Amino acid sequence: MKFGLFGTATIAAIGLAMPAMAQTPIKIGFISTFSGPQAAIGEDMRRSVELAKEHLGGKMGGRPFEIIYEDDQFKPDVGKQKSEKLVQQDKVNVVTGYIWSNVLLASLKTVTEEGDTILISANAGPSQIAGELCNKNFFSTSWQNDQTPMAMGQYLQEKGVKSLYLMAGNYAAGKDMLAGVKRTFKGEIKGEDLTKWPDQLDFSAELAKIRAAKPDGIFIFYPGAHGVQFLTQYVQAGLKSQIPFYQVFSIDAITLPQQKELALGTLGAQEWVNDLPNEQNKRYVADFKKKHGVYPSYYGAQSYDSIMLIASAAEALKGDLSNKDKVRAEMKKANFKSLRGDFKYNTNQFPIQNFYIQEAVKDADGMMTVKTIATAVKDGKDPYYEKCPMK
Amino acid sequence: MTGWLAFLRTPRGLATALLLLALAALPLLTQAFDQRYLLSIGTRIVIWAIAAVSLNMILGYGGMVSFGHAVFFGIGGYAVGILAHHGITNGWIQWPVGIVAAATWAALVGALSLRTRGLYFIMITLAFAQLVYYVGVGLEAYGADDGLNISRSRFSGLINLRDKASFYWLCLALLCATLWFSGRFANSRFGLVVRGAKSNELRMMALGFPVFRYRLAAFTIAGAFGGLSGILLANEGAYISPAMMSWVKSGDLIVIVVLGGMGTLFGPLFGTIAFFALEESLPPLLDLARKGWGEYWQIVFGPLLVLIALYAKGGIDSLFGRSSDERGHG
Amino acid sequence: MDYLLLQMLNGVQLGLLMFLLAAGLTLTFGIMDLVNLAHGSLYMMGAYFAWTLIGWTDSFVLGALLALPATFLLGIVVEAVVARRLYARDHLDQVLATFGLILFFNELVRVLWGAAGKSIAVPAFLNRTVEILPGVPYPAYRFAIIVVGGAVALLLAWLVARTRIGMLIRAGASNRRMIGALGVNIELLFTLVFGLGAVFAGLAGLMAAPITSVKIGMGDDILILAFVIIVIGGIGSIKGAFVAAMVVGQIDIVGRAFLPDLLKTFLSTSAASSAAPAISQILVYIVMAAVLVWRPTGLFGQRA
Q: What residue of B is the nearest CA neighbor of C93?
């Protein structure tokens, strides 16, 4: 025992802590973007997490729990460092959150392998993690990136749209999104642009190309502030009346307060919509609106679900999250009331779930929102799970 | 040896020795108090200190204001990362490649930029660094902006870099080696010419020294050590991305060197520790003053830099009085 | 053909914005010998001032017009408190101190306006397209940037070439000691020039705001480009800054509009999309290096 003295001290410290175990809080780390132009997304997630905490009465399996929020500043390297801090310094039981695929990919190993800690993505779903990089410590309460655009592509295919022009931010998720829409949409692709992410907010060059290409429709993926910018410039260039606008993750409760009427009538795909008719969802949306005066987004809904997923495992294990094998086994059951309705986990621990087509409309009070108009995919599985070595 | 003993008796020497001892003991302390994260910060400090010592060789001793030194983080890091990505994880191959690549790039940049002076030199070193940065951004195969997860270098069982304490001690040993080299450099004939050219270039040329070649050599050596720090940084996080070499990081390195004391042997080490300590401690200190202020620590740190630039050019090292190697020269 | 024209106009618009930023930078460096990294912060502050003032006045034009004197005042304060003390110092001190100012301003904005960033809407009367040629629509707001930017460039050219202040500026750029000998109040001149540079930077920032968004650090990256521009153009030369800004603007647009399609013929879409903007940035730096090898003091710089 090289560190005899120190070791003894440590054991003594643990010994002192033991009786308090039942009352020591469960710690959950939450990584999201709380600064910069995309902070609105992080705020929506935080509000939903706090609402989940309220609905749970601040306890999971009889133990209180605390959430430690960290800001990834929208940068992969910062997100990785913050993940490291959560695992090593705060010693959290679970890390969740993650809006961005590139941040998640940079942080994955740090949390799941080096930290041997469970990670629940509440949004990002890069193809690599659904396939070859799948990990027993990784769960998703969202989707794999390809799935949502696949749903949109399938809908457009069935509607008989002949050609599309595709645009997305050039990062991990953007590439997956365009790959996804091309899996199901079989018409002509008139053009395809991946723009510099996240710096490029001026789309004048691309808009001129779209005008010249004259497609039957445009399909885009620009989350958050970028979606606001893109739609504004699209309308300003006079294109919306000429070329129909289809999107994923670019017109939602985060962006609509700024896009306002510009978004009216545009179609998108999503696995969760605020009007899904189940009890837990009605309660969530009503409470959220009452508290904050705005609609929640799928980012928030997925974050709420991630907390509920942890709570389901903690309930089953009576608050003892020390045995990670048991925690993983409980989580894999997805035994909780998801806001999108029940779902099952696939072998790669991504949900098997429905996807809906939604339209941007005004609600009864004149507030912009989205409503479900069709079910595009039933019990959809992502196209990568067979590459995952876990069976 | 007696020189070292004499040095140890000075306040500077004593402080430095205690600091190095504390650094050497850090893994034991973090283990005892179960603070693994502190060891991660400690490792980053040691790696940044290597880069700062290397920048000090040209900026501090040589007066060459290079505003692109973080590029060597990137070159060293990408050398390791790209090789690892193609399955070559052997450190005996990776590390020499990284160092040689950094030195080569430094020689090339130096050859072109050392002919310019003043703002033009600052800008051209920055421009070349930005150039490499954008190459990193453009390399789709290696993750572009998203960066790349890599596996750590392997040294055929000699040392396991995944073990945090071993890796830390390796970095610390390399820092000591870099400091030793920097000290030898500063007092060698070669170093004296470079230092002399800082205060009076014409005199050195009149004395018949090929100042340009000496500067170029110093620039290249500094690049090689910078590359080493990049190699270590990539292994620390098992991750590379263009953000390693953003121009703000180059600015941080200049701040560190000036903060610690330009043209002093241990200044860059003091500077790195102070920089990271400020970064970690200003937020809680401000939080003490008023809850929530900690978030805005840079509002204090920024003006602090202005004050240092205006009134405290000697840096932390000057708190110990003038150093012997300065005196021999002043 | 229409497409080519539109893209070139976009390049001109970008170039004019960068010229506005570079003009102040080249003046402060040429006359006061000051490396001012915080110039990008003035660009950012101009945009934030505009956001607040547009909110108060409920008018884009009025808010923008009020933001200009606000940025001017800010410039004068920065000059009096910090910059003035740096004129006689070496470049390293200047880099360090103004780097500190960047951190300060970025954080100040976070305290005053929050971390989330703001957006300024395109004013309603410009939220449409104009036909620059029959059948070729162009966003009116971008066209307005070209008009305003071009007008300011002309104004500046007139100011430098035809007025007494301009004469002093030209004299100062070529021989700093001489204007002192002329009995001019140098301190006042320096303060005015710094303030003027701040106004141009602020104008660029607020005009760019509706097409980019107002956020912390928005001036940091464009600042590097502005430095490249003044180095290419020759430090202290307004004409040089203009020419270089136009060149850089066109290179950027070529890289975004044409290069991706060219690269896609032999690379995958995502590889081409990563490479193209990087190549256009790299091209900018190669142009700079080439110019410096060919003319070590830039295109229109004074011979050392």
A: B309
